[in-house]
Automatic annotation (TrEMBL):
<keyword id="KW-0813">Transport</keyword>
<dbReference type="GO" id="GO:0006893">
    <property type="term" value="P:Golgi to plasma membrane transport"/>
</dbReference>
<dbReference type="Pfam" id="PF16528">
    <property type="entry name" value="Exo84_C"/>
</dbReference>
<protein>
    <recommendedName>
        <fullName>Exocyst component Exo84 C-terminal domain-containing protein</fullName>
    </recommendedName>
</protein>
<dbReference type="GO" id="GO:0008104">
    <property type="term" value="P:intracellular protein localization"/>
</dbReference>
<comment type="similarity">
    <text>Belongs to the EXO84 family.</text>
</comment>
<feature type="region of interest" description="Disordered">
    <location>
        <begin position="35"/>
        <end position="56"/>
    </location>
</feature>
<dbReference type="InterPro" id="IPR032403">
    <property type="entry name" value="Exo84_C"/>
</dbReference>
<feature type="domain" description="Exocyst component Exo84 C-terminal">
    <location>
        <begin position="68"/>
        <end position="271"/>
    </location>
</feature>
<dbReference type="GO" id="GO:0006887">
    <property type="term" value="P:exocytosis"/>
</dbReference>
<feature type="compositionally biased region" description="Basic and acidic residues">
    <location>
        <begin position="35"/>
        <end position="44"/>
    </location>
</feature>
<keyword id="KW-0268">Exocytosis</keyword>
<dbReference type="GO" id="GO:0000145">
    <property type="term" value="C:exocyst"/>
</dbReference>
<dbReference type="InterPro" id="IPR042560">
    <property type="entry name" value="Exo84_C_2"/>
</dbReference>
<dbReference type="InterPro" id="IPR042561">
    <property type="entry name" value="Exo84_C_1"/>
</dbReference>
<dbReference type="InterPro" id="IPR033961">
    <property type="entry name" value="Exo84"/>
</dbReference>
<dbReference type="InterPro" id="IPR016159">
    <property type="entry name" value="Cullin_repeat-like_dom_sf"/>
</dbReference>
Length: 704
């Protein structure tokens, strides 16, 4: 080819000489003809002759042809850099390409067309270089710079994005098979790959094209498309959403991708919000299905026994609430904690930061289900009708006092210690993490997390309170009502003073039902001390709530008050005095035992005020019928001492729930522990204060 080019140059040169000789000869002949005819004027008016006479156009044509031939040679040899420089210089210096000069319009258009044709050919060559799969970075950058010099900046930028997009696509195709081999880390590896390409492309764009807003906006749009593609790949190649692996993979994905987004912010790309918007539905789906699986596992004893190992810490705390025959109840508590702990261990710090509130809500919902199941395990008034159905829906039943208290102890230990500690360990990892922050609003989740945790703990407490209140309600109702449904707290015991239920005379005592209440609280406290050993707080909470439940029932029982309000039934001042003494006695039980008595005091005060109003409406004057408040306080204290000093050397037998008699036949209904009112020592099992250390409440007549 080189030899042929040399031959062509020689041929063109010889032809040029011939043309030059011809033109010179013609000019000479025309000059002679002008002189012979003397017609210079016509010769001057003929433009074609003038053009032939002028040697300058011929020289310019030669230069153009030589230039175009030079460009053709450079293009044929793919010397794109030299061709770019030559075209750029010609375009700047040639008046014909600028649209000015003395040449005709036709010649300029013809030369410009040839020039632009060669320029387009050069652009095609540059595009081909950039689009080559194996092109090197430096070679591609030179080609991009060439397109920019040729005035094709937008095309060059689009080719840059396309090139890096193809590189990303090929890298992803290589990575995809590993999604089944390493499902938990696939999303992290993919995010590293995607965000690395985005970062590299952004840097190259800035170095080649500068800070032009047009190109910057294109980079942002391209990066956003890549983020959408990344999220779609994560969803399509993730493990099954209900598995722990899916939760771990999703959490790692959030952690890694938000970290990379944080790094990109230094390059002017803020992609965190878009990423979270795109990831949120997927993360919430994974959380929802994982917690559904947790609800199924909560009481699936067979699967648990085959697959799960308990934490020694959980086992040491919860195993204290059950013997070998009660391991099912203990296992249920350890199962709950294992399920929650397994979920929490999958969470990365940034996943907690952005989805912690959602996770707390779902944990509280799981705790609600656990509490509901424990409530079903306790006796209730509907047991006789629905016992078979309940046994089919729950894996265990609590029949005795000790079994019921064990359930409360398990629930309280989870509420008060195990569950908050497990959550706080995970949240502490979030605070102590040295990972880069995901954006300028990173301080906000920290403040909101504190509020979320407080609300979460409040919700857990409310859920546990339902379990506690159910126990207290059924316990008190079993005390108040006999199996036949008759009430022991009958208002008729306050109608006269000569019945068996009133001990008045010179040695006044509370009515028999309230003496029985004192006995039941004492024996329950003895059982609680053994079953709930080390959880004095729960013991006092339960005993206080039981006392509150009794007076609350009395306050709300309209059938009880209807007896006093019935004008056809005679009443006496002694009945009012006995009722007020019973209320003072109830308050003194709470105060003497050392558990909270404020609410009991408030309800008892309301009952006393209502009783005084009711008896006053029936014509009984409280001022003349009732002794001073101090008398009731001292009598109530004295009654407690008397009951504590009752000597009973024999074990208590089964209580007759149809009729309670004190003091000789006072016994417990617990199947596990029998106790009596015989000594101060037995009562001190749940009493943390002595009578001398307590201030007694003073009840006053609101109408006096």
């Amino acid at each position: 080819m080189e030899h042929e080019l040399i031959e062509l140059r020689k041929h063109i040169s010889s032809q040029g000489i011939l043309v030059q000789d011809l033109m010179t000869g013609v000019c000479r002949e025309l000059e002679e003809w002008k002189q012979s005819n003397g017609d210079n004027h016509e010769a001057q008016q003929d433009p074609e002759i003038s053009e032939i006479q002028d040697p300058l156009p011929s020289e310019r044509d030669d230069e153009k042809m030589i230039f175009l031939e030079h460009i053709d040679v450079l293009l044929a040899e793919h010397k794109v850099e030299e061709a770019i420089e030559a075209l750029d210089a010609e375009e700047k210096n040639s008046p014909d390409l600028k649209g000015s000069g003395e040449t005709s319009v036709g010649e300029v258009s013809q030369y410009k067309s040839a020039f632009l044709k060669r320029k387009a050919t050069l652009e095609d060559q540059l595009v081909q270089i950039i689009e080559q799969p194996s092109v090197g970075v430096q070679e591609m950058k030179k080609a991009l710079y060439g397109l920019i010099k040729l005035g094709k900046g937008p095309l060059a930028h689009q080719l840059l994005l396309t090139s890096y997009g193809l590189r990303l696509q090929k890298s992803i195709e290589v990575l995809l098979p590993s999604s089944h081999v390493c499902p938990k880390t696939f999303s992290a590896t993919l995010s590293k790959l995607v965000f690395s390409i985005i970062s590299l492309t952004t840097k190259e764009s800035a170095s080649i094209f500068g800070d032009n807003p047009i190109y910057t906006n294109r980079i942002v749009q391209w990066a956003e498309w890549d983020i959408e593609y990344f999220v779609r790949l994560v969803k399509e190649n993730a493990p099954s959403s209900e598995t722990v692996s899916a939760l771990r993979a999703a959490s790692i994905c959030v952690q890694a991708s938000l970290n990379y987004c944080s790094m990109l912010e230094s390059q002017g790309l803020k992609l965190s919000k878009l990423l979270l918007v795109l990831l949120r539905p997927y993360i919430e789906e994974v959380l929802e299905l994982n917690f559904r699986r947790a609800r199924r596992l909560l009481f699936d004893l067979v699967e648990l026994d085959e697959s799960l190992l308990f934490s020694p810490h959980f086992e040491s705390l919860l195993s204290a609430f059950g013997t070998i025959s009660e391991t099912i109840r203990v296992d249920s508590g350890m199962r709950f904690m294992y399920i929650v702990k397994e979920i929490l261990e999958q969470l990365a710090p940034l996943a907690i930061t952005h989805f912690g509130g959602n996770i707390l809500i779902r944990i509280s919902q799981l705790f609600d289900i656990f509490m509901d199941a424990l409530i079903k395990a306790l006796p209730s008034p509907s047991d006789d009708d629905n016992l078979t159905e309940l046994k089919e829906t729950i894996p265990f039943r609590a029949e005795t006092d000790s079994e019921q208290l064990a359930i409360l102890g398990i629930a309280f230990t989870i509420l008060d210690e195990l569950l908050p500690n497990a959550v706080m360990i995970s949240w502490k990892r979030q605070n102590e993490s040295n990972e880069p922050k995901s954006g300028p609003t990173e301080d906000v989740p920290s403040a909101s997390t504190t509020i979320e945790l407080k609300e979460w703990k409040r919700h857990l407490q409310h859920s546990f309170d339902k379990l506690k209140d159910h126990f207290c309600r059924q316990y008190v109702l079993s005390f108040i009502y006999s199996r036949e449904g008759k009430t022991r707290l009958n208002a008729r015991i306050y109608l006269n003073g000569d019945g068996d239920d009133l001990y008045w005379d010179s040695d006044p005592l509370p009515s028999l039902p309230f003496q029985a209440l004192f006995s039941k609280l004492q024996q329950l406290a003895t059982v609680a001390e053994d079953v709930l050993h080390g959880i004095e707080k729960l013991q006092k909470i339960l005993l206080a709530r039981l006392t509150e439940t009794v007076v609350m029932w009395l306050s709300d029982e309209q059938e009880f008050w209807g007896v006093f309000e019935d004008d056809s039934i005679p009443i006496q001042p002694l009945g009012l005095q006995q009722l007020i003494l019973d209320m003072h006695f109830t308050v003194e039980i709470a105060r003497f035992a050392g558990y909270p008595s404020r609410h009991v005091h408030q309800i008892a005060s309301a009952i006393i005020a209502r009783a005084i109003r009711t008896f006053s409406a029936r014509g009984i004057d409280p001022q003349s019928a009732l002794p001073e408040d101090e008398w009731f306080v001292e009598t109530a204290k004295s009654a407690i001492n008397k009951l504590l000093l009752v000597v009973s050397e024999s074990e208590a037998s089964e209580v007759d729930e149809d009729h309670i008699i004190l003091p000789d036949d006072m016994v417990t209904d617990s199947d596990d522990t029998a106790s009596s009112l015989s000594t101060m020592e037995s009562f001190e099992s749940f009493a943390s204060a002595s009578m001398g250390e307590l201030d007694s409440p003073m009840f006053t007549d609101p109408e006096s």
